[in-house]
Inverse folding.
């Protein structure tokens, strides 16, 4: 059966068309106002951030020349040649840089694990469904928020003065920041846990710690592990720059090379860092897929 | 289900304990029979437990090794904690010292916000076309997609502070280098996130536009864009929040913003100013989070942002 669509008469169509036009005009006006506000904010922000487009485009060729210098030897026997033509000379410091990279990974590892332990403990106090009392919950949540909001580099700067130069303040800074970041995620996981096992253990007379051990822990452990692995990736990148404030790792050498314009060394270290970060991303991704079996965390 | 709180449960525990006292010994006495009846529960859990304990022992051994190699010592920790406590007493009350300095800090905070805002926005605009290029359902050439992805990964592998140092060499010290650093580092993340958002679009609207004779540009404009814009807006706002935090630290290497004053105050051991600056950052971040969360809520509803 063919269907026919009959056109409404003009006098009945007119109000509908008018309503439609009004609705569209309102939406368009809203979009325009939004765009105007955005534009004003951009100009204000550009003014405050001293954006100097003339300077930028005047220097845009120096971006190219910087990249160019990064991939050429700037002195020695092979001056002017592409770094890849003499990989041995390019990676002359491989032994030292490799050791520093290992130190960087260890810093990230120790910091992540210590932070995860702290976040683990605090998450049970901060979770709505397990908190002992509103007051301890408030204190735990605020403490985690503080650890999370202050950047790890700021902790590192302060710790370098308290503990002295070296990897230790870096590890502690990473640990505290990680504790805040993971503590929040862990808290959310705990709050989303199924409460029926908790009722079961409570009915059987379990204490608070026993409830956590037997009713909550089996539900959440794989999620915790997955988040911790994800954080480990982030922390490897973070640990690579801890050296900028004197807190150990490859950052000390990298900053010196950048500041002193040792271009070939800068590119060598960057390549090593990127390769390490990618390898670790790949490994943790594999582990996470095995842990959570294809689910996304 | 969420109503069971420990306060209420505590009242029940007395009774539960009496029942348990009576049931526990009986069940324990019956354990061999239970083990025989449910071998899969008892046997399986033992192997799993061994594996779990093995993993934990391995992790702990790694931690001890790392702590040893990285030169931790109780003496250092102890004196360091003493120093920290000393610093903490010097930090109260937080104060900017003088009014002109207060306004200097406020200006630096504004600079930080501007750096985060501009960096995120420019990165999003630049990454937008790249997201399409790296998406499997827009550009079918597998090789091309692989190359763009690796390129974006490479950019992402370098921390924002390293980018800041490099940009300082190019445009000089100041907040503009910070904007460029945030832009570069976010460009990699955005490219990846946008391409993932584009790859997961519903194909039905695309088929609809195709059926009415739309060109491939029409498909993008009328079938893909309306689906991905809210997702992208959510991600951009989320990154803006986290960039406010990163923008506070790029000043440490000289790329503008409040980090410059913070590192200066720490280096000159002006602890009252340090605590004041940290408080300023905390307040600013909390306010920005609130505003941004509200905008995000208005734009995309209460949906989780995958980042």
């Amino acid at each position: 059966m063919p269907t026919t669509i009959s056109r409404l008469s003009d006098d009945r169509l007119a109000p509908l068309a008018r309503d439609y036009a009004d609705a569209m005009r309102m939406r368009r006006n809203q979009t325009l106002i939004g765009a105007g506000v955005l534009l004003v904010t951009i100009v204000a922000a550009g003014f405050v951030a001293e954006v100097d487009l003339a300077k930028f485009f005047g220097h845009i060729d120096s971006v190219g020349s910087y990249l160019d210098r990064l991939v050429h030897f700037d002195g020695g026997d092979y001056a002017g040649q592409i770094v890849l033509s003499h990989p041995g000379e390019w990676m002359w410091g491989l032994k030292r840089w490799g050791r520093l990279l290992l130190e960087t990974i260890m810093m990230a590892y120790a910091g992540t694990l210590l932070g995860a332990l702290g976040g683990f403990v605090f998450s049970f106090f901060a979770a709505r469904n397990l908190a002992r009392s509103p007051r301890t919950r408030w204190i735990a949540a605020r403490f985690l928020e503080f650890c999370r909001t202050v950047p790890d580099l700021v902790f590192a700067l302060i710790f370098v003065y308290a503990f002295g130069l070296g990897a230790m303040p870096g590890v502690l800074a990473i640990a505290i920041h990680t504790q805040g970041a993971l503590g929040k995620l862990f808290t959310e996981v705990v709050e989303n846990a199924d409460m029926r096992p908790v009722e079961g253990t409570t009915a059987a007379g379990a204490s608070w710690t026993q409830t956590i051990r037997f009713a909550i822990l089996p539900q959440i452990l794989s999620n915790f592990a997955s988040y911790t692995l994800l954080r480990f990736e982030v922390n490897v990148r973070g640990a690579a720059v801890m050296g900028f404030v004197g807190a150990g790792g490859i950052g000390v050498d990298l900053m010196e090379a950048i500041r002193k314009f040792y271009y070939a060394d800068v590119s060598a270290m960057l390549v090593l860092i990127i390769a390490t970060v990618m390898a670790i991303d790949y490994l943790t991704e594999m582990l996470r897929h095995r842990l959570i079996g294809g689910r996304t965390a | 289900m969420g109503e069971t709180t420990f306060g209420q449960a505590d009242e029940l525990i007395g009774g539960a304990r009496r029942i348990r006292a009576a049931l526990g010994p009986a069940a324990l006495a019956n354990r061999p029979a239970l083990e025989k009846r449910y071998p899969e529960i008892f046997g399986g859990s033992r192997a799993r437990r061994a594996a779990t304990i093995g993993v934990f022992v391995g992790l702990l051994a790694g931690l001890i090794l790392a702590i040893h190699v990285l030169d931790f010592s109780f003496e250092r920790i102890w004196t360091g904690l003493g120093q920290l406590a000393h610093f903490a007493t010097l930090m109260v009350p937080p104060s900017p010292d003088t009014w002109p300095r207060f306004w200097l800090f406020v200006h630096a905070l504004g600079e930080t916000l501007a750096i985060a805002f501009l960096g995120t926005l420019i990165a999003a605009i630049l990454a937008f076309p790249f997201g399409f290029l790296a998406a499997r359902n827009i550009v079918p050439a597998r090789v091309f997609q692989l190359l763009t992805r690796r390129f974006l990964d490479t950019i992402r592998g370098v921390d924002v502070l390293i980018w800041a140092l490099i940009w300082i060499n190019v445009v000089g010290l100041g907040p503009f280098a910070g904007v460029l650093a945030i832009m570069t580092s976010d460009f990699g993340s955005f490219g990846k996130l946008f391409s993932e958002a584009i790859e997961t679009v519903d194909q039905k609207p695309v088929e609809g536009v195709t059926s009415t004779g739309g060109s491939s540009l029409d498909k993008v404009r009328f079938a893909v864009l309306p689906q991905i814009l809210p997702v992208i807006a959510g991600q951009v706002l989320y990154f803006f929040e986290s960039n406010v935090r990163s923008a506070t630290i790029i000043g440490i290497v000289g790329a503008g913003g409040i980090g410059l004053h913070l590192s200066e105050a720490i280096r000159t051991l002006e602890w009252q100013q340090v605590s004041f600056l940290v408080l300023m950052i905390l307040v600013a971040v909390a306010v920005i989070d609130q505003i941004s969360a509200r905008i995000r809520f208005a734009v995309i509803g209460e949906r989780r942002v995958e980042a």
About this structure: Chain A is about 75% helix and 0% strand. The first helix of chain A runs from residue 10 to 48. Chain A touches chain B through 76 residues (CB under 8 Å).
